[in-house]
Design brief:
The chain is mainly β and 366 residues long. 1% of the residues lie in helices and 39% in strands.
Length: 366
Amino acid sequence: MGGALFSHLALAQPASASVTPEVVAKGLQNAWAVAFIDDGRMLVTERPGRMRVVHPDGRLSEPLAGVPAVEAGGQGGLLDVITDREFASNRRVHFCYAEPGASGNSTALATGRLANDLSGLEDVKVIFSQKPKVSSRLHFGCRIVQAPDNSLFLTLGDRYQRMQDAQTLDNHHGKVVRVMPDGSPHPANPFLNRAGALPEIWSIGHRNLQGAALGPDGQLWTHEHGPQGGDEVNRPEAGKNYGWPVITYGENYGGGAIGDGITEKAGLEQPLYQWTPSMAPSGMALVTTDRYGPDWKGRLLVGSLKFRYLARLQVDGAKVVKEDKLLTNLGQRVRDVREGPDGFIYLLTDARDGELLRLRPAGAGS
Protein backbone atom coordinates (compact mmCIF):
# COMPACT_ATOMS: atom_id res chain seq x y z
CA MET A 1 0.00 0.00 0.00
CA GLY A 2 1.52 3.32 -1.05
CA GLY A 3 1.36 6.00 1.63
CA ALA A 4 0.73 8.65 -1.02
CA LEU A 5 -2.69 7.16 -1.64
CA PHE A 6 -3.73 8.21 1.83
CA SER A 7 -2.19 11.67 1.95
CA HIS A 8 -5.53 13.43 1.53
CA LEU A 9 -7.92 10.50 1.49
CA ALA A 10 -11.48 11.32 2.56
CA LEU A 11 -10.42 14.61 4.13
CA ALA A 12 -13.51 15.80 5.96
CA GLN A 13 -14.68 19.31 6.65
CA PRO A 14 -13.70 20.88 9.97
CA ALA A 15 -15.63 19.41 12.89
CA SER A 16 -14.51 21.77 15.64
CA ALA A 17 -18.06 22.38 16.82
CA SER A 18 -18.24 18.95 18.45
CA VAL A 19 -15.87 19.99 21.25
CA THR A 20 -14.97 23.15 23.13
CA PRO A 21 -11.45 23.66 24.52
CA GLU A 22 -11.39 24.96 28.09
CA VAL A 23 -8.28 26.18 29.88
CA VAL A 24 -7.15 24.01 32.79
CA ALA A 25 -3.85 25.80 33.41
CA LYS A 26 -1.82 28.56 31.78
CA GLY A 27 1.61 30.11 32.15
CA LEU A 28 3.52 27.02 30.98
CA GLN A 29 6.76 27.73 29.13
CA ASN A 30 7.07 25.49 26.07
CA ALA A 31 5.22 22.62 27.71
CA TRP A 32 6.00 19.26 26.11
CA ALA A 33 4.07 16.48 27.85
CA VAL A 34 1.31 15.84 30.37
CA ALA A 35 0.86 12.74 32.55
CA PHE A 36 -1.85 11.91 35.07
CA ILE A 37 -1.17 11.13 38.72
CA ASP A 38 -4.03 11.11 41.24
CA ASP A 39 -7.01 13.11 42.50
CA GLY A 40 -7.24 15.08 39.27
CA ARG A 41 -3.62 16.20 39.41
CA MET A 42 -1.20 16.05 36.51
CA LEU A 43 2.49 16.33 35.78
CA VAL A 44 3.62 18.66 33.02
CA THR A 45 7.10 19.05 31.57
CA GLU A 46 8.50 22.35 30.30
CA ARG A 47 11.28 22.15 27.75
CA PRO A 48 13.68 24.47 29.65
CA GLY A 49 14.02 21.68 32.25
CA ARG A 50 11.13 21.99 34.69
CA MET A 51 8.52 19.45 35.76
CA ARG A 52 5.48 20.75 37.63
CA VAL A 53 2.31 19.45 39.24
CA VAL A 54 -0.91 20.92 37.89
CA HIS A 55 -3.60 20.93 40.57
CA PRO A 56 -7.33 20.53 39.77
CA ASP A 57 -7.89 24.26 40.23
CA GLY A 58 -5.17 25.05 37.67
CA ARG A 59 -2.46 26.03 40.15
CA LEU A 60 1.07 25.18 39.11
CA SER A 61 3.51 23.85 41.66
CA GLU A 62 7.05 25.04 41.96
CA PRO A 63 9.45 23.02 39.77
CA LEU A 64 10.00 19.54 41.19
CA ALA A 65 13.35 18.76 42.76
CA GLY A 66 15.40 15.85 41.46
CA VAL A 67 15.05 16.45 37.71
CA PRO A 68 18.47 15.93 36.07
CA ALA A 69 20.25 18.72 34.22
CA VAL A 70 19.01 18.95 30.64
CA GLU A 71 20.50 20.52 27.54
CA ALA A 72 17.82 23.06 26.71
CA GLY A 73 18.15 24.70 23.32
CA GLY A 74 16.72 24.25 19.87
CA GLN A 75 14.44 21.22 20.10
CA GLY A 76 16.22 19.87 23.17
CA GLY A 77 15.29 20.01 26.83
CA LEU A 78 12.96 18.16 29.18
CA LEU A 79 10.55 16.31 26.91
CA ASP A 80 8.15 13.38 27.47
CA VAL A 81 6.82 12.04 30.77
CA ILE A 82 4.48 9.16 31.63
CA THR A 83 3.36 7.56 34.86
CA ASP A 84 4.01 3.86 35.35
CA ARG A 85 1.19 1.38 34.81
CA GLU A 86 1.50 0.55 38.53
CA PHE A 87 1.80 4.18 39.64
CA ALA A 88 -0.87 3.79 42.32
CA SER A 89 1.40 1.39 44.20
CA ASN A 90 4.94 2.34 43.11
CA ARG A 91 4.64 6.07 42.26
CA ARG A 92 7.15 5.58 39.42
CA VAL A 93 7.48 8.22 36.70
CA HIS A 94 9.36 7.70 33.42
CA PHE A 95 10.68 10.69 31.49
CA CYS A 96 13.09 11.49 28.67
CA TYR A 97 15.21 14.51 27.90
CA ALA A 98 18.23 15.90 26.06
CA GLU A 99 21.14 14.65 28.13
CA PRO A 100 24.35 16.74 28.02
CA GLY A 101 27.75 15.11 27.80
CA ALA A 102 31.39 15.83 27.03
CA SER A 103 31.02 14.87 23.36
CA GLY A 104 27.61 16.41 22.72
CA ASN A 105 24.11 15.39 23.72
CA SER A 106 21.60 12.61 23.18
CA THR A 107 18.16 11.46 24.30
CA ALA A 108 18.10 9.77 27.69
CA LEU A 109 15.35 7.83 29.46
CA ALA A 110 15.13 8.09 33.24
CA THR A 111 12.85 6.81 35.96
CA GLY A 112 12.15 8.11 39.43
CA ARG A 113 9.65 8.01 42.28
CA LEU A 114 7.31 10.94 42.81
CA ALA A 115 7.56 12.03 46.43
CA ASN A 116 4.44 11.60 48.53
CA ASP A 117 4.32 15.34 49.14
CA LEU A 118 4.72 16.03 45.39
CA SER A 119 7.83 18.13 46.01
CA GLY A 120 10.20 16.21 43.77
CA LEU A 121 11.48 13.01 42.23
CA GLU A 122 13.38 10.49 44.34
CA ASP A 123 15.66 7.60 43.41
CA VAL A 124 16.16 8.99 39.90
CA LYS A 125 18.09 6.68 37.56
CA VAL A 126 19.00 7.02 33.90
CA ILE A 127 18.15 3.61 32.44
CA PHE A 128 18.96 4.31 28.77
CA SER A 129 21.12 6.81 26.91
CA GLN A 130 21.14 7.12 23.12
CA LYS A 131 24.48 6.34 21.46
CA PRO A 132 26.48 8.09 20.20
CA LYS A 133 26.20 11.60 21.58
CA VAL A 134 26.57 14.32 18.94
CA SER A 135 26.60 18.10 18.90
CA SER A 136 23.10 18.88 17.68
CA ARG A 137 20.07 20.88 18.82
CA LEU A 138 17.66 18.93 16.62
CA HIS A 139 15.66 15.70 16.28
CA PHE A 140 15.61 14.17 19.75
CA GLY A 141 12.36 12.24 19.19
CA CYS A 142 11.51 11.30 22.79
CA ARG A 143 8.06 9.77 23.22
CA ILE A 144 7.59 6.95 25.71
CA VAL A 145 5.01 4.15 25.67
CA GLN A 146 4.76 1.43 28.30
CA ALA A 147 3.71 -2.01 27.03
CA PRO A 148 1.50 -4.45 28.98
CA ASP A 149 4.61 -6.35 30.14
CA ASN A 150 5.89 -3.05 31.68
CA SER A 151 8.66 -2.68 29.10
CA LEU A 152 9.21 0.78 27.63
CA PHE A 153 9.27 1.83 23.99
CA LEU A 154 11.24 5.03 23.36
CA THR A 155 11.30 6.91 20.05
CA LEU A 156 14.63 8.41 18.99
CA GLY A 157 15.32 11.04 16.34
CA ASP A 158 18.08 10.86 13.75
CA ARG A 159 19.76 14.03 15.13
CA TYR A 160 19.30 15.73 11.72
CA GLN A 161 22.84 15.76 10.35
CA ARG A 162 23.21 12.03 11.12
CA MET A 163 20.23 10.91 9.03
CA GLN A 164 22.20 8.12 7.31
CA ASP A 165 22.59 6.50 10.73
CA ALA A 166 18.89 5.62 10.63
CA GLN A 167 19.78 2.75 8.27
CA THR A 168 22.55 1.16 10.34
CA LEU A 169 22.43 -0.89 13.52
CA ASP A 170 25.56 0.35 15.31
CA ASN A 171 23.82 3.44 16.72
CA HIS A 172 20.47 4.55 18.17
CA HIS A 173 19.80 7.41 15.73
CA GLY A 174 16.46 7.23 13.92
CA LYS A 175 15.29 4.19 15.87
CA VAL A 176 12.58 2.93 18.16
CA VAL A 177 14.12 1.08 21.11
CA ARG A 178 12.50 -1.23 23.65
CA VAL A 179 13.92 -1.75 27.13
CA MET A 180 12.83 -3.31 30.39
CA PRO A 181 12.19 -1.07 33.43
CA ASP A 182 15.81 -1.55 34.54
CA GLY A 183 17.10 -0.49 31.11
CA SER A 184 18.10 -3.93 29.90
CA PRO A 185 17.15 -4.82 26.30
CA HIS A 186 13.79 -6.51 25.88
CA PRO A 187 14.37 -10.26 25.40
CA ALA A 188 12.28 -10.25 22.20
CA ASN A 189 14.23 -7.43 20.52
CA PRO A 190 15.02 -8.45 16.93
CA PHE A 191 18.74 -7.63 16.86
CA LEU A 192 19.58 -8.86 20.33
CA ASN A 193 22.15 -11.43 19.20
CA ARG A 194 23.37 -9.85 15.96
CA ALA A 195 27.05 -8.92 15.91
CA GLY A 196 27.60 -5.18 15.61
CA ALA A 197 23.97 -4.28 16.40
CA LEU A 198 22.86 -2.39 19.49
CA PRO A 199 20.56 -4.74 21.41
CA GLU A 200 17.95 -2.16 22.42
CA ILE A 201 16.83 -1.53 18.81
CA TRP A 202 13.24 -2.44 17.90
CA SER A 203 12.80 -0.77 14.47
CA ILE A 204 14.91 1.41 12.18
CA GLY A 205 14.62 3.94 9.37
CA HIS A 206 12.87 6.73 11.28
CA ARG A 207 13.46 10.50 11.16
CA ASN A 208 12.07 12.37 14.19
CA LEU A 209 9.25 10.63 16.04
CA GLN A 210 7.27 12.91 18.36
CA GLY A 211 4.11 10.87 18.80
CA ALA A 212 3.46 7.35 20.11
CA ALA A 213 0.53 5.42 21.51
CA LEU A 214 -0.47 1.84 22.23
CA GLY A 215 -3.42 0.32 20.41
CA PRO A 216 -6.01 -1.93 22.11
CA ASP A 217 -4.24 -4.95 20.58
CA GLY A 218 -0.95 -3.93 22.21
CA GLN A 219 0.49 -2.71 18.89
CA LEU A 220 2.64 0.41 18.95
CA TRP A 221 1.59 3.37 16.79
CA THR A 222 3.95 6.26 16.04
CA HIS A 223 4.23 9.32 13.85
CA GLU A 224 7.27 11.23 12.72
CA HIS A 225 8.26 14.49 11.10
CA GLY A 226 9.23 14.39 7.44
CA PRO A 227 11.38 17.01 5.72
CA GLN A 228 9.13 19.57 4.04
CA GLY A 229 6.53 16.86 3.40
CA GLY A 230 6.17 13.21 4.18
CA ASP A 231 5.13 13.35 7.84
CA GLU A 232 4.24 9.72 8.55
CA VAL A 233 2.02 7.49 10.68
CA ASN A 234 3.45 3.99 11.23
CA ARG A 235 2.97 0.88 13.35
CA PRO A 236 6.59 -0.08 14.06
CA GLU A 237 7.13 -3.83 14.18
CA ALA A 238 10.17 -5.71 15.41
CA GLY A 239 13.07 -5.61 12.99
CA LYS A 240 11.33 -3.67 10.23
CA ASN A 241 12.82 -0.75 8.30
CA TYR A 242 10.64 2.34 7.79
CA GLY A 243 12.76 3.77 5.04
CA TRP A 244 14.29 7.08 6.09
CA PRO A 245 16.27 8.52 4.32
CA VAL A 246 16.24 6.01 1.44
CA ILE A 247 12.55 6.56 0.71
CA THR A 248 10.48 9.58 1.68
CA TYR A 249 7.53 11.63 0.47
CA GLY A 250 9.34 14.77 1.58
CA GLU A 251 12.12 16.82 0.05
CA ASN A 252 15.07 18.92 1.15
CA TYR A 253 14.28 22.23 2.81
CA GLY A 254 14.25 24.79 0.02
CA GLY A 255 13.50 22.08 -2.54
CA GLY A 256 15.33 19.21 -4.16
CA ALA A 257 15.15 15.44 -3.85
CA ILE A 258 16.59 13.56 -0.90
CA GLY A 259 18.90 10.78 -2.04
CA ASP A 260 17.47 9.11 -5.14
CA GLY A 261 14.14 10.88 -4.68
CA ILE A 262 12.16 7.63 -4.45
CA THR A 263 9.08 6.82 -2.38
CA GLU A 264 9.12 3.02 -2.53
CA LYS A 265 11.74 0.29 -2.40
CA ALA A 266 11.56 -3.44 -1.74
CA GLY A 267 12.15 -4.32 1.91
CA LEU A 268 11.22 -0.86 3.18
CA GLU A 269 7.87 -0.21 4.83
CA GLN A 270 5.34 2.26 3.47
CA PRO A 271 3.67 4.70 5.89
CA LEU A 272 0.10 3.96 6.87
CA TYR A 273 -0.67 7.64 6.30
CA GLN A 274 1.34 10.67 5.33
CA TRP A 275 0.96 14.43 5.21
CA THR A 276 2.35 16.49 2.35
CA PRO A 277 2.81 19.37 2.95
CA SER A 278 4.03 18.71 6.48
CA MET A 279 1.65 19.49 9.31
CA ALA A 280 4.44 19.00 11.90
CA PRO A 281 2.83 16.33 14.10
CA SER A 282 3.35 16.11 17.85
CA GLY A 283 1.55 14.07 20.47
CA MET A 284 -0.69 11.08 19.83
CA ALA A 285 -3.57 9.42 21.65
CA LEU A 286 -5.97 6.60 20.83
CA VAL A 287 -9.48 7.40 22.04
CA THR A 288 -11.04 4.74 24.29
CA THR A 289 -13.56 6.93 26.12
CA ASP A 290 -17.30 7.10 25.34
CA ARG A 291 -17.52 10.77 26.34
CA TYR A 292 -17.29 12.08 22.77
CA GLY A 293 -19.55 9.59 21.01
CA PRO A 294 -18.97 7.11 18.17
CA ASP A 295 -17.23 9.60 15.87
CA TRP A 296 -14.36 9.71 18.37
CA LYS A 297 -14.03 6.27 19.93
CA GLY A 298 -11.24 4.23 18.34
CA ARG A 299 -9.78 7.23 16.51
CA LEU A 300 -6.17 8.37 16.63
CA LEU A 301 -5.62 11.99 17.65
CA VAL A 302 -2.53 13.88 16.47
CA GLY A 303 -1.60 17.48 17.19
CA SER A 304 -0.30 19.84 14.51
CA LEU A 305 2.42 22.30 15.42
CA LYS A 306 2.59 24.01 12.02
CA PHE A 307 -1.10 24.38 11.16
CA ARG A 308 -2.34 24.50 14.76
CA TYR A 309 -5.17 22.00 14.73
CA LEU A 310 -6.04 18.55 16.03
CA ALA A 311 -6.19 15.70 13.49
CA ARG A 312 -8.67 12.91 14.13
CA LEU A 313 -7.79 9.80 12.14
CA GLN A 314 -10.21 6.96 11.48
CA VAL A 315 -8.46 3.60 11.53
CA ASP A 316 -9.62 0.46 9.74
CA GLY A 317 -7.37 -2.35 10.95
CA ALA A 318 -3.86 -1.19 10.08
CA LYS A 319 -5.03 1.52 7.65
CA VAL A 320 -5.92 5.15 8.14
CA VAL A 321 -8.98 5.80 5.98
CA LYS A 322 -10.16 9.26 6.96
CA GLU A 323 -8.91 12.47 8.55
CA ASP A 324 -10.99 15.16 10.26
CA LYS A 325 -9.36 18.50 11.05
CA LEU A 326 -10.60 19.74 14.41
CA LEU A 327 -10.06 22.98 16.35
CA THR A 328 -8.88 24.75 13.22
CA ASN A 329 -9.41 28.11 14.93
CA LEU A 330 -7.38 27.19 18.00
CA GLY A 331 -4.45 29.38 16.90
CA GLN A 332 -1.93 27.50 19.07
CA ARG A 333 0.73 24.90 18.37
CA VAL A 334 -0.48 21.54 19.69
CA ARG A 335 2.44 19.76 21.35
CA ASP A 336 0.81 16.88 23.26
CA VAL A 337 -2.48 14.98 23.17
CA ARG A 338 -3.57 12.61 25.96
CA GLU A 339 -6.72 10.87 27.16
CA GLY A 340 -7.08 11.27 30.91
CA PRO A 341 -8.39 8.72 33.41
CA ASP A 342 -11.53 10.88 33.62
CA GLY A 343 -12.23 10.16 29.94
CA PHE A 344 -11.52 13.71 28.76
CA ILE A 345 -8.99 14.58 26.07
CA TYR A 346 -6.23 17.00 27.11
CA LEU A 347 -3.98 19.12 24.90
CA LEU A 348 -0.79 21.02 25.64
CA THR A 349 0.08 24.06 23.57
CA ASP A 350 3.67 25.01 22.81
CA ALA A 351 4.39 28.66 23.55
CA ARG A 352 6.29 30.80 26.04
CA ASP A 353 2.92 31.24 27.76
CA GLY A 354 1.35 27.89 26.86
CA GLU A 355 -1.82 26.26 28.11
CA LEU A 356 -3.16 22.93 29.26
CA LEU A 357 -6.58 22.45 27.66
CA ARG A 358 -9.45 20.03 28.27
CA LEU A 359 -11.81 19.24 25.41
CA ARG A 360 -15.41 19.54 26.57
CA PRO A 361 -17.95 17.59 24.46
CA ALA A 362 -20.74 19.67 22.94
CA GLY A 363 -23.61 20.01 25.36
CA ALA A 364 -21.61 18.83 28.39
CA GLY A 365 -21.71 20.83 31.59
CA SER A 366 -18.62 22.19 33.28
